[in-house]
Amino acid sequence: MIINHPLLGPRDAQEFVYLGDASLIGRPDGMTEGAVDAFHDYLYLRDNPAGEHRELWYHEQGDRSWLVVTRNTVTHEVVSVEIARDVARKMGRSK
Amino acid sequence: MRYSGWRVIREALTGHKGWTPAWRDPEPQAAYDILVVGGGGHGLATAYYLAKEFGQAKIAVLEKGYIGGGNVGRNTTIIRSNYLLDGNQPFYEFSLKLWEGLEQDFNYNAMVSQRGIINLFHTDAQRDAYTRRGNAMILHGADAEMLNRDQVRALYPFLNFDNARFPIKGALMQRRGGTVRHDAVAWGYARGADQRGVDIIQNCEVTGIRTEHGRVTGVDTTRGFIGAKKVGVAVAGSSSKVMAHAGMRLPMESHVLQAFVSEGLKPVIDGVMTYGAGHFYVSQSDKGGLVFGGDIDGYNSYAQRGNMPVVEDVAEGGMSLMPMIGRARLLRMWGGIMDMSMDGSPIIDKTDIDGLYFNGGWCYGGFKATPASGWCFAHLLATDQSHSTATAYRFDRFRKGLMIDEKGQGAQPNLH
Ligand SMILES: Cc1cc2nc3c(=O)[nH]c(=O)nc-3n(C[C@H](O)[C@H](O)[C@H](O)COP(=O)(O)OP(=O)(O)OC[C@H]3O[C@@H](n4cnc5c(N)ncnc54)[C@H](O)[C@@H]3O)c2cc1C
User: Fold this and answer.
1) Would you write out chain B's pLDDT as a tens digit for each of its 416 residues?
2) Would you say the CB of residue B41 lies under 6 angstroms from ligand 1?
3) Cβ–Cβ under 8 Å, residues B321 and B286
4) A52 CA to centre of ligand 1 in angstroms
5) Domain spans of chain B?
6) What residues of B are in contact with residue A21 (Cβ under 8 Å)?
7) Cα(B345)–Cα(B396) distance, rounded to whole angstroms?
């Protein structure tokens, strides 16, 4: 699989470490009511779709950036690649 | 028809005209008492034990493709009960005991071969960890033995004992572990279940799960609606997809695991060997092919095929353990989709929907579990109670902090 890094261009997926579903960016607020349930779901439950999946890849043997890769889990086709920081900021996170 | 040596002789003398199909190919009925979704090893074993041990009737197994086309026919056939943790070891030992009597029980030659499995170690710390594991196994009634370097050398003199990074210092041996002909397990259970009245319905994909007032009423399939009082789902790598029909999200990711077979060679490895440090394990089939594999590819996948980096990794592992493997040619390779759970251990449990039951999360190790998984799932479906060896395999263990994490990796499915 080739991951088209937004800054470095096409890179072999072997240079990356895989973390999982990009929903991990949206860490729940531990101080709110229902935080225990929210953390259970955040940590342990996954949509695990057959088809397009947004997921976190870390460019360990490259520029050490975290990327959000949209990839088809049935064909392994990489559909789009974004810098995870940009995605997190768009979601309202400060960093 | 009962299979026996006499039967083979009689058929040989009469032109093999008396053999009949091993199971029927029935049309689905309008409704059943119990539907088992998934005709893999676990689904078929569940149906078999439901009929045979738990006196249930009106059972059907619904299979999307054909019997044996899933992981039960794709795995590397290793059986063992060398687990460490309380929640696991009694269950896998129960399974190994069932394997030992299985062929007589279902009257089918599954080629259960207790040829012994060794796990190699390379450091003092690893030896201590295996000693602890071996003791845990013995405490739960399984067998375990520590082999020193010379004892391993006597078994497999050709190994690379002085590898600079991972010199072989010894191994944990379980002599009762071994291999089983995987397709024959599916066929044997299918035949045994069919003989006891279970309808095995192939080419029948479940596309929806219907409920009414929090109770399951049946499933939609590519062959129409089929009503049911109870539905048990055992679909391995497709678990998240099928349970999504009931609105559930699972503590699971689907990943691809690859396996490899070399050309047929003269006998060279008479047992099973795992080389965890090198991401490699190997045995030799009765046809002579070296059957080997390594790690999962590591990213979510439903593709039933992997990528080259892991092929390279497995080949490197093989070369560092037994350099002569470089002379063998690869005959076949393939992939299967694993239901990787968040702690690396399975789930056999009820759901919040009355009458809907779930069996999955077997990761890359569910073949050895087939008999006990079927037995325990049948127990749950028939009695609404967990079997005594499967009480830890609950959905709520993540909420309660009771994970069964053999590898200590945390909620990171691709590392288990
Ligand atoms: C390469 C490889 C090597 C392995 N090696 C080992 C090993 O050495 N030892 C070991 O213990 N384990 C091993 N495993 C793991 C083991 O094979 C699995 O854990 C186990 O087979 C899973 O249970 P099963 O047999 O019921 O799965 P499967 O045979 O996959 O059965 C699930 C069935 O459900 C069906 N299904 C899916 N969706 C639907 C639907 N919507 N409707 C109807 N049916 C559906 C599928 O078609 C499939 O037939 C290995 C797996 C692989 C891929």
Assistant:
1) 899 999 999 999 999 999 999 999 999 999 999 999 999 999 999 999 999 999 999 999 999 999 999 999 999 999 999 999 999 999 999 999 999 999 999 999 999 999 999 999 999 999 999 999 999 999 999 999 999 999 999 999 999 999 999 999 999 999 999 999 999 999 999 999 999 999 999 999 999 999 999 999 999 999 999 999 999 999 999 999 999 999 999 999 999 999 999 999 999 999 999 999 999 999 999 999 999 999 999 999 999 999 999 999 999 999 999 999 999 999 999 999 999 999 999 999 999 999 999 999 999 999 999 999 999 999 999 999 999 999 999 999 999 999 999 999 999 999 99
2) yes
3) no
4) 23
5) 5-77+182-251+349-415, 110-180+253-341
6) 253, 300
7) 13
Domain of A39: which CATH number? 3.30.2270.10
- Regarding beta strands B289-300 and B252-264, do their DSSP bridges make them parallel or antiparallel, or are they unpaired? antiparallel
Element of type H or E holding B121: strand B117-121
Domain total in chain A: 1
Residue A95 domain-assigned (yes or no) = no
What CATH number belongs to B110-180+253-341?
3.30.9.10
* Chain A residue with the nearest C-alpha to that of B302: A74
Query: Which among B254, B303, B309 has the least Cβ separation from residue A48?
Result: B254
CA distances from B113 to B93, B224, B255, B272, B274 (A): 16, 42, 29, 11, 17
Q: How far is the CA of B299 from the centre of ligand 1 (A)?
A: 18
Type of residue numbered B3: Y
Half-sphere exposure (CA, 13 Å, Cβ side) for B414? 17
The class of domain B5-77+182-251+349-415 in CATH terms is: alpha beta
Which residues are registered as beta bridge partners of B348?
B359
Q: Are A16 and A57 in contact (CB under 8 A)?
A: yes
The answer to whether residue A55 sits within a structural domain is yes
Which residue range(s) make up the domain with A84?
2-25+35-90
Contact A84, A67 (CB under 8 A): yes
Residues of B in Cβ contact (< 8 Å) with A71: 299
Does B255 sit in the ligand 1 pocket, CB within 6 Å? no
Within a domain: residue A70? yes
Question: Do the beta carbons of residue B143 and residue B106 sit within 8 Å?
Answer: no
Write down how long chain A is. Answer: 95
Atom of ligand 1 nearest to the CA of B281: 8
Query: pTM of this prediction?
Result: 0.97
Verify whether ligand 1 is closer than 6 Å to residue B274 (CB atom): no
Residue A56 lies in a domain: yes
Q: Is the CB of B236 under 6 A from ligand 1?
A: yes
- Chain B closest CA to A93's CA: distance in Å? 24
Measured CA to CA, the distance from residue B172 to residue B355 in angstroms comes to: 43
